[in-house]
Each structure stands twice: as structure tokens, then as C-alpha cells.
Design a protein that fits this description.
The chain is α/β, with parallel strands linked by helices and 234 residues long. Helix content is 47%, strand content 16%. Helix 5 links the parallel strand 5 and strand 6.
């Protein structure tokens, strides 16, 4: 876990200059957090990351934002900086959360703006993500998992569990085959069995790989559910 002796470096991205100034100011006041960059557009984000090499990007996204552009920029940024953490603060976004998680859930945080009554949840998410964890707003996780009650993680074989762990890291079938010394056919067979046991078959409205990864991370205690902090007293 990062300490005050080793501050977590952060680039903050916000599509509202006023809100962005306020957020950056609050982050600068936090012990153990060092804001090394602040930009107010997605277009500037990658350049800022390339220049400052932060541990975490905090990205505030309005509901009206272009989701595809946001996801595309985040993907390019993380491809160039694999160890980079990303904390997204959004107005809403089960769909955005699922899309961001599609490339792997590690070092991803997703918080809903309406649940942030103070900076505690944001600071906690930054530190957890910098340490390699996944931090998700409980409403997002509950909405996804509730649709698939009784996921059968305990019913998976040891090999299926290994394959599911690789899926949670965002690896393709070919990469899983290479990592576990399996044939492509065997990987596909295991994935089919995983989807069946997790009750994800015949549900075209969801991304089965993302949902399977979320179920696995939650079962392993590796998805940190962001607490819904109470509002500060007046």
C-alpha cells in the first residue's frame, strides 16, 4: 500500500474547468497524493500521462460525454502504460464500467458521482488502484451481479478457475492458451463451461467475459467495493 513517504502521483482529467480546479485542489491537500498534472479534456490526457508518468489517472466523465472516445483514449493510454491505474468518476454508467473493464479489471476504479459526499472515497480508490486493486461503486456491481444470481464459482474445476483468472486479467483466448500451455480448442471448451456454470449463456445483452471477470474478482475478494460514505455533517 502506498505511504506518505512514497506519494501516489496523479493526473486529474475533468471536462469542467471549475469542478476540475476544485477536485485538484482537494487532492493536493491530501497526504500521500501528489497531483503532477491537470487537464480539462480527453485529448490532453494521453499527452499529460506520457509527460508525467503518473501512477493513477483520475478521470471525471459527465453523462453527456462521448463514451466511445473516452474508452478509446483510456485504452490507448493503458496500452502505453500497463501499470497505470485509472479511477473514473461518472454521473452514471453501468455500460461505461463494463466497457472499461473489458480489457481487464486490475487497476481500475469506477465511482458514481452522486455517491461521493466527500473526498474519502476518491482518495481511497486512488490508493487501492495504485496498489493493483479493482474498486467499483457498489451500485454498479450489485446491478450486474443481481442479474445473475447464484453464480457458480465454487462449481468450477481448478483448470476452469485458472482460465477464469486469466479472463479477469483481460487476456485473449490465444494468450490464455500460451500462458497455461493449452490448445486453443481446450481454452474455448473451458470458457464455454465457465459461462454455463456462471449462468451467462444465452444472454446477448451483456459482455460475458466482463461479467465472468467481475464474479471471479468478487469471489476472490480482489474487487474492492467502494463504500457509500455518509454525507458530512453540516
Amino acid at each position: 500500500m502506498p505511504t506518505t513517504e512514497t506519494p501516489v502521483t496523479v493526473v486529474h482529467v475533468n471536462d469542467s474547468l471549475l469542478v476540475g480546479e476544485g477536485m485538484a485542489s482537494l487532492l493536493r491537500d491530501e497526504s500521500g497524493i501528489s497531483v503532477v498534472g491537470q487537464v480539462d479534456s480527453i485529448e490532453e490526457m494521453i499527452h499529460a500521462v506520457d509527460k508525467t508518468h503518473p501512477a493513477v489517472v483520475v478521470l471525471s466523465v459527465a453523462a453527456a460525454s462521448d463514451t466511445l472516445s473516452t474508452v478509446s483514449a483510456a485504452r490507448r493510454m493503458r496500452e502505453g502504460h500497463p501499470e497505470l491505474g485509472l479511477v473514473v468518476i461518472a454521473d452514471a454508467g453501468e455500460g461505461l464500467a463494463v466497457t472499461l473493464l473489458r480489457d481487464g479489471a486490475s487497476r481500475i476504479g469506477f465511482l458514481l458521482r452522486d455517491h461521493l459526499h466527500d473526498m474519502s472515497a476518491v482518495v481511497s480508490a486512488i490508493r487501492e488502484v495504485a496498489a493493483g486493486q479493482t474498486v467499483l461503486d457498489p451500485m454498479v456491481v450489485n446491478d450486474l451481479v443481481r442479474r445473475h444470481a447464484s453464480p457458480g464459482v465454487d462449481d468450477l474445476t481448478p483448470r476452469e478457475t485458472e482460465v477464469l483468472e486469466q479472463i479477469s486479467l483481460g487476456r485473449s483466448n490465444r494468450a490464455i492458451a500460451e500462458e497455461l500451455s493449452l490448445s486453443m480448442k481446450s481454452v474455448e471448451k473451458h470458457i464455454t463451461a465457465i459461462f454455463r456454470k456462471l449462468d451467462l449463456v444465452g444472454q446477448p445483452a451483456i459482455d460475458r467475459r466482463v461479467m465472468a471477470a467481475l464474479v471471479y474478482l468478487r469471489a476472490q475478494g480482489r474487487a474492492v467495493i467502494a463504500p457509500d460514505f455518509p454525507a458530512s455533517p453540516a
